[in-house]
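hey so i finally got around to running both of the ones u sent me last week. sorry it took forever, my laptop kept dying halfway thru and i had to restart like 3 times lol. anyway pasting them below in the order u listed, first the sequence line then the structure token line for each. didnt double check formatting much so if smth looks off just lmk and ill redo it

first one:
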Amino acid sequence: MIEQKVEKNLREAIYSRDEILKTALRLMLSELTKNKKAKQPEKEEKVIASMIKRSEQSMRIYLEQDRQDLARIEEEQIKVYRKYMPEEISDVELKTKLIEVLGNSKAEGPKQLGTFLKDTIGPLDGLASRKRISEMSKSLLAAYAKRKESNAK
């Protein structure tokens, strides 16, 4: 679905002669096509998220090397990529979903973070970044362990 939208927008970018947009869309189309041909294709959103992450890393390196011109191009490409990503859920919605998963999980504190993340990443993938999920999970498990400890006393 995203691939067809990218193809359509690429044609428009070619006619409008927007070089940054055209380059970003070509890269995205290439990555999506390559992913589709892979033995175990990933969700389109996941492919685009990895492209965003790669561009952010490149932008950081360019800024460290004092190459604002290249960093600006990466920044513009990131903006294009983000247009094709679904909106992330709010912190309140994320916390609600994590609490639901916690109710069904065997995790009882921060030590079981890995187990808890295995349960949460799948259903929440694409709805929120893995970093956000991980950070909120850590704080939620810590609070859960404290509450459980205080109830035991």
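and the second one:
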Amino acid sequence: MSAREPAAHELAARLRPGAPQPALTAAIASCRCGEALRAGLFLLNGDWQRAHEAAQALDDPSGAHWHALVHRHEPDYANSKYWLRRAGTSPIYPRLAEAARVAGQAERVAPGGQWDAVAFTDCFADPAHDAWTRPLDALEQRALLEHCLAQER
């Protein structure tokens, strides 16, 4: 008798920064979840190739957003910005705009309180901004993962 496959929210709780965890990669691959959620789980597990494959298979805003994040980390910033434009406005953007305000960067990436994902990608590309872009990028990934989890419940 095989063990119960972990649910997507259980896999999300096991994610840790750093190199991909092989056991977690296998569990994500067999998880009964949508491809947008799978793309996010792979990306947060550091498995960019599998994240790209999962995101590329989608034709919806969440898939395009994950696709953009994969390319941001590749780094292929022009391609990332292309996919951000394809994704359109995301329901996680107000949360990111508020985080940018708290970080003192609203003028750069959330003028008028509206998150500008393309401007953020431009800032992310500049290592001089790492102190504030890296935490916002991590928040964006977690917020998008939470959004995808909520969509599946």
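quick thing i noticed on the 2nd:
The chain has ten helices and no strands.
anyway thats it, ttyl
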